[in-house]
Amino acid sequence: MNKIHVSVADWQKDIAEIRRIREAVFIAEQSVPPELEWDADDADAVHFLAFEGDFPIGTARLLPSGEIGRVSVLKDWRGLKVGDKLMEAVMGMAEQRGQTKQFLSAQVYAAPFYERLGFKIVSDEFLEVGIPHVDMVRGD
After folding, report:
1. Taking every pair of C-alpha atoms in the chain, what is the biggest distance, in angstroms?
2. Which EC number(s) are documented for this chain (predicted)?
3. Phi/psi-derived region of residue 53, left when phi > 0, alpha when psi is between -120 and 50, beta in every other case
4. CB of 50 closer than 8 Å to CB of 56
5. Model pLDDT for residues 78-88, shown as the tens digit of each residue
6. Among 82, 95, 97, 3, which Cα is nearest to 48's?
7. Which pTM does this prediction carry?
8. DSSP letters along the chain, please?
9. Cα–Cα 20 to 30 A to 131, which of 23, 24, 33, 93?
10. What is the pLDDT of residues 42-96, one digit of tens each?
């Protein structure tokens, strides 16, 4: 296996790859309606792509508010620490931008992954697009 690396993506240039990953994970696997997956926040977000060699296998975004979202890794690459590398890049960028407090809405099954990265659950469980989520925060 090639080394996994993460880069800041260009929304305009990399939109096809970002869409391919998010559509595979959220729309195809998790049945999120397409009209709920794509929103106006994408235009203002910093996007990240994880690669194996030169093949994009994961993505995430950071909003100007410090909210992290759309963290997704293609099925065949899960369990290989791709999510860790994506989140390290996103959290590092947030901190560089002075966003010492980051937050996200995590699918309940993924909460332990985010807790390992220093996030704490700050809400009761709630449904978002029919999937149980919790709000989580990291930092001050």
Report:
1. 40
2. 2.3.1.-
3. left
4. yes
5. 999 999 999 99
6. 82
7. 0.94
8. -PPEEEEEE-HHHHHHHHHHHHIIIIIIIT---HHHH--THHHHSEEEEEEETTEEEEEEEE-TTSBEEEEEE-GGGTTTTHHHHHHHHHHHHHHHTT---EEEEEEGGGHHHHHHTT-EE-S--EEETTEEEEEEEE--
9. 93
10. 999 999 999 999 999 999 999 999 999 999 999 999 999 999 999 999 999 999 9
CB atoms under 10 Å from CB of 54, counted, come to 7
As to burial, measured by CB atoms within 10 angstroms (0-12 exposed, 13-18 middle, 19+ buried), residue 37 is: middle
Tell me which amino acid residue 57 is: I
50: tokens are 């994880």
Report yes or no: 16 and 22 within 8 Å, Cβ to Cβ: no
β-pair type (55-62, 46-52): antiparallel
User: CATH classification of 4-98, choosing from 3.40.50.620, 1.10.1200.10, 3.40.1360.10, 3.40.630.30?
Assistant: 3.40.630.30
